[in-house]
Write a structure and sequence with these properties.
The chain is of the alpha+beta class. The chain is built from eleven helices and 14 strands. The protein folds into three domains: 90 residues; 142 residues, D-amino Acid Aminotransferase, Chain A, domain 1 (2-Layer Sandwich); 83 residues, no CATH class. The chain is globular and about 70 Å long. Bound molecules: adenosine-5'-diphosphate (ADP) and magnesium ion. This is ATP-grasp fold RimK-type domain-containing protein. It comes from Photobacterium leiognathi.
Amino acid sequence: MKINIVTYQNYFGHHLKVEESLNLNVIKKELEAKNFNINIFDINELIKYGVNDNEFYWITSHQNTAVKKYLNDIVFSLFVNREEQLITSLKLYFAHDNKGIQSLLFNNGKSIELIKQKYYLSSLSEDIDRKKVFKTIDGAGGQGVSLVDNSKIKKRVNKEKIISFNIYECKTAIKEKIKKIVKRNDKYASYVEKRVPYVLQDFIEGLDSDYKVLVFFKRVYVLKRNIRDNDFRASGSGKFSYIEPTDELLNYSLNLRENINSPFVSIDIAEVSKNKFKCIEYQATHFGPYTQLNAKYFYEKKDKWEKVVKDNNLEQDYCYSIYEFMKAK
Ligand SMILES: Nc1ncnc2c1ncn2[C@@H]1O[C@H](COP(=O)(O)OP(=O)(O)O)[C@@H](O)[C@H]1O
Ligand SMILES: [Mg+2]
């Protein structure tokens, strides 16, 4: 079986720091030892040579928005009729770093107990009756996440507008303001007005922590993250610990990975009541590996859950997952 690993400028995301690539030499060696034929090349070569029948493709994603858009465009165009050749599925590739797509994919699809949420653009089409969690669609580390009620949403959107204005948008906005004063063309001004995409999630009250869980096929790594002082957010708090997870948490995590049909997944999980879980966010590619890198143990599903001393590195976990996932294909 041939697997093509497609990089962007020799980068495949990501290691502990987002700008650090996974070690592709280790990955190549590991997968070759499992009898895969491995070819590593840049996204530009994929454009040049196209997609071969009967081969598989594992393609990096990126957090730089321009790079991400470029990669998305290529991956969509080349694989829309060849989805089965992608290791990270087309929809999960698009869901990376896009909470809007995440919310739409699995709210109505296979149940992963995703917390109820809705995708908006700038204004709300209805009033909200209680506090919600506002999230910009591409935030990370708790940035862009805040609590809002009806009165605060407009302010929050405006703040996001200002933060994310680029020079071109600034120019357009000023031009339109001047035009509006000189000769009114409200319709055009409204057409070109800058807008902010975001999701509103049901707020789970009273949480003191969440779980960051990484599932590599049947291996589960669990990190507990306490919330920051005087805040409801756990991500980015730095108050992390490795706990003994319950079977229910492990089962929930493994089921989620199986439901979305991915070799691996990173999940943010809230315990809404004893042993009842909701997914706050998920990523099936280009996710932070802290939880795997710092763990001493993982939990593996055999007949029952077993606690196993970790002696595999991150790259080996990726390769193990791909091997098991492809075997089942
Ligand atoms: N719906 C929610 N209810 C309560 N707390 C939440 C909710 N969504 C997120 N949080 C808290 O906010 C943190 C950041 O949210 P998350 O969606 O994971 O964004 P990020 O991209 O910053 O990781 C989470 O770690 C969690 O502690
Ligand atoms: Mg998160």
